[in-house]
Amino acid sequence: MVAAPSPLLGLPGAVPGPPESPDAAVAWHYGDPFGEQRAAAQRVALVDRSHRFVARITGAERLSWLHTISSQHIAELSDGRSAENLDLDLNGRVQHHFVLTELDGTVWIDTEGDRGPALLDFLQKMVFWADAKPEAAADHAVLSLLGPRVSDLTETLGIAALPQVYGAVALPGGGFLRRMPWPTEDSYDLVVPRERLSELWTALTAAGAEPAGLWAFEALRVAALRPRIGVDTDDRTIPHEAHWIGGPDEFGAVHLNKGCYRGQETVARVHNLGKPPRHLVLLHLDGSADARPTAGDAVTAGGRAVGRLGTVIDHFELGPIALALVKRAIPADTRLEAGPMAAAIDPDSIPSDDEPQAGRLAVDKLRGR
């Protein structure tokens, strides 16, 4: 499904995302990509993410029902709280990643625009007898505010104070503001009526928010080691590989102590007995190459494929960087190639998984080891 061009693409200086990319419908930048990243990291920037798919779920059993068919513990999510969540297949492979917010008797969901219809179709097929009604909310759209000076905009937003991480507050005129733990420490999503996009954009930029394209958002997301479903993942990705393990308090999308759901067996087995075959790492790329790799290209070591490349982006401080799923056994100092470019793993991005799992320790104890 190709999203319709955003009405904000008509703003002065707006350059659309690369053709045929998932982001062609919104602004990629406004003429100063690195300056826009600095604004998002150091001041306050406003990003059009209105190509995301938005849905709503109503009904008295909306939370308890969604809890049983997804990976996150949300059965008792309180009003004004949010969480990240996954839909897994029977083998524990990630099918969908989405953000949800419970507010005023409705669960709001947003996810990748091209994957949203399939997620909604799955949810609708899983309702059965539950009092839950999932439906598309095409009349709502997402904007993002990034930067330490978002607090300067509370009066313009019509709210008394900013929420804590994963908290949400209703906005006058409809919609809500939600705080996220990424791509920066000061990140907020506005899920608002689509008809208000231009009005809010004008008001927020007049109050000091600087227009920033999705390039800025993506660069900061990659630096924060946050994967994007379908770009940084493939059809074999399990949650452990992409840093999605953890409840809302741990900024994860998979709670390890909840009832049964599709794919839970794989999640529990890997957590308790095994290790994920790959892990998501940050790559630093050699910018002197004439050509650039793209998402899906192989990451190789000595001519042998050892991983899969995800998002490739230019960061205002780090230069050319990328996310990649690489084999867990590959040391951080391995000389790699990503397409035509030399690449090196950022050692700080390699997760520490040397501790023995509880399940393995229990098995060894039973065997007298």
TrEMBL record:
Residues 36-243 form the GCVT N-terminal domain. Its EC number is 2.1.2.10. SUPFAM superfamilies: Folate-binding domain. Keywords: Methyltransferase, Transferase, Transit peptide. Gene3D superfamilies: Probable tRNA modification gtpase trme, domain 1 (3.30.1360.120). One of its GO terms (biological process) is methylation. One of its GO terms (molecular function) is methyltransferase activity. It comes from the Bacteria. Pfam families: GCV_T (PF01571). Residues 343-369 are annotated as: Disordered. It is an enzyme of class 2 (transferase). NCBIfam families: ygfZ_signature (TIGR03317). This is Aminomethyltransferase. It comes from Nocardia cerradoensis.
